[in-house]
């Protein structure tokens, strides 16, 4: 029987590359990421949605420019009021700043403040170390395949967004 501390818990079936095994591994990884994010949210007095918003702001596509409340609303599938409340909490907590566009004062950009980044770095440093340790156990070619798989999974997940 597998325990929580086993390095490789049992997977359904015999083939670790079959769909069900992949699904189990992805759910387990997602659960662990969620646990880390929940701990950060709790430590900062934030909601889980607030942390998801911080991640969206941090990972905003540079080609699309800085994150806006409208894009954040769409990405997180929130109402306008929920985005406003979320952005207010993040701004009060010192994680982000609203900045009006110089050419159109109606446009608001959301910027992750350096102080907020430092808090996040401190909290997520163990995750970064663990990620680097795991990466170190793979060759560059293997990591390229993993990166390609994750990229394709993210594309498929984006297609599921309503």
Could you outline the blueprint of secondary structure elements for this entry?
Blueprint: H1 19-44, H2 48-58, H3 69-76, H4 80-92, E1 96-100, E2 108-112, H5 114-135, H6 140-160
Antiparallel strand pairs: 1-2
Please sum up the structure shown.
The chain is mainly alpha-helical. The protein is 62% helix and 6% strand. The protein has six helices and two strands, in the order H-H-H-H-E-E-H-H.
What structural keywords apply?
162 residues, two-stranded antiparallel sheet, 2 strands, single chain
What this model shows, in words?
This protein has helices at residues 19-44, 48-58, 69-76, 80-92, 114-135, 140-160, and strands at residues 96-100, 108-112. With 162 residues, it is mostly helical. It has a two-stranded antiparallel ribbon. The longest helix is centred in the first third of the chain and has 26 residues, at 19-44. The relative contact order is 0.08.
Q: What is the percent of helical residues?
A: 55-70%
Distance from N terminus to C terminus (CA atoms, Å) equals 40 Å
- Mean pLDDT comes to 89
Largest sheet: 2 strands, antiparallel
How does the overall form come out from the CA principal axes? globular
| Structure classification | mainly alpha
Strand order of the largest sheet: 1-2
- Determine the number of helices (DSSP H or I, runs of at least 4 residues): 6
Low-pLDDT stretches are none
SSE string: HHHHEEHH
Number of β-strand runs: 2
Radius of gyration: 19 Å
Strand content: 5-15%
């Amino acid at each position: 029987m597998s325990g929580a501390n086993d390095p490789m818990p049992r997977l359904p079936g015999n083939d670790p590359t079959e769909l069900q095994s992949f699904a189990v591994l992805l759910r387990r990884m997602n659960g662990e990421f969620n646990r880390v994010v929940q701990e950060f949210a709790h430590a900062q007095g934030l909601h889980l949605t607030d942390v998801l918003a911080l991640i969206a702001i941090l990972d905003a596509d540079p080609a699309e420019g800085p994150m806006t409340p409208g894009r954040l609303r769409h990405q997180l599938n929130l109402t306008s009021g929920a985005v406003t409340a979320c952005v207010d909490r993040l701004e009060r907590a010192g994680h982000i700043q609203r900045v009006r566009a110089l050419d159109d004062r109606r446009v608001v950009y959301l910027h992750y403040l350096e102080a907020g980044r430092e808090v996040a770095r401190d909290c997520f440093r163990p995750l970064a170390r663990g990620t680097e340790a795991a990466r170190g156990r793979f060759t560059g070619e293997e990591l390229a395949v993993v990166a390609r798989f994750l990229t394709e999974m993210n594309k498929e997940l984006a297609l599921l967004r309503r």
